[in-house]
Amino acid sequence: MSETAWRGAGALIRPGVLAFTGTIGGTRSHAHHAVQIVVADAPVTVLDGDGRPHTGAEIVIPPDTEHLVETGGATGIVVFLDPDSAAGRGAVLRVATAGWSGGPALRDPARPATSTADFVDGLLSTLATASGGAVAVRHPGVVGAVAALPAMVARGPVRPGEVAAAVGLSASRLTHLFTAQVGLPLRRYILWLRLMNAVHLARDGQDLTTIAHAAGFADSAHLTRTCREIFGLPPSALTGAVAWDVGGSRIVQAPTGERRPR
Predict the structure, then answer these.
(1) Which of 36, 6, 33, 46 is nearest to 236 (CA)?
(2) Tell me: the pLDDT tens digits for 156-186?
(3) What is the biggest distance separating any 2 CA atoms in the chain, rounded to whole angstroms?
(4) Model confidence over 58-104: pLDDT tens digits?
(5) Distance between CA 106 and CA 124 in Å, rounded?
(6) Contact, 223 vs 201, CB < 8 A?
(7) Are 231 and 259 in contact (CB under 8 A)?
(8) What predicted TM-score, i.e. pTM, was given to this entire model?
(9) How far is residue 63 CA from its own chain's centroid?
(10) How many other CB atoms sit within 10 Å of the CB of residue 120?
(11) Residue 52: CA atoms inside 13 Å, Cβ hemisphere, count?
């Protein structure tokens, strides 16, 4: 399975959203915290962790779920959503009720998108409506940790004990609550935010070694290993010739993280 088939043409970063347009290539088996949505001009095939195929021109992959892209497409868009956002919750609900490749069309044929941003706007509106506005109730300490973490990660390495102290809980209590209510261990969530900072630094044109150090990784090899583990692909998309639209925001300002393959 080729890991070089992806050829990005454009990318967009907003708080809670990371989107890439271009050729959709195959991936290794991997899992990540974002909801991943693949919309292509022709059917693609994604295998879940049990090897079951999901085929369609529109695929929604739930968060923290092992998968791989077996058959990609010549043209398409890959969108990663914060699963705690209204659109992310709508996407998870869609999967629960219709499966990875079922459900109403994510694209309105009567309103073709004119840009990546235009497509994302329509997608977010569609999925947020589907969520019904339901919001999971979280412990105030978890809410505070999620709000504080982006800025803490931007300043440098973060230990769970520091986060716990900032929200007035013990480290053991916070890590238990965080995993139960966010659905991802605290250390893994911090790693996710560091990867998002790496994506933003790549948009600024930094080389891979500089990106790795600035985002809190030991070196470029550490960043590469982490990208393979999280996204199933090497970090070539971070330094590739992609036209970025940052939506007026730095990724570190997002309330939670999300990502893109490479």
Answers:
(1) 6
(2) 889 999 999 999 999 999 999 998 887 678 9
(3) 53
(4) 999 999 999 999 988 778 899 988 887 778 889 999 999 999 999 99
(5) 10
(6) no
(7) yes
(8) 0.69
(9) 9
(10) 23
(11) 9
Rounded to whole angstroms, how far apart are CA atoms 163 and 178?
11
Kindly give the residue spans of alpha helices, DSSP state H, lying in the chain: 86-98, 116-131, 140-155, 160-167, 171-182, 186-203, 208-214, 220-231, 236-239
- CA–chain centroid gap for 89, Å, is 14
SS (H, E, C) 38-57: EEEEEEEEEEECCCCEEEEE
Contact 78, 24 (CB under 8 A): yes
Q: Minimal CA–CA distance to 238: which of 218, 247, 214, 255?
A: 214
User: Helix %, strand %, coil % for the chain, to 5?
Assistant: 40, 20, 35
At position 4, the amino acid (one-letter code) is T
Tokens found for residue 138: 């979280």
Q: What is the DSSP letter of 253?
A: G
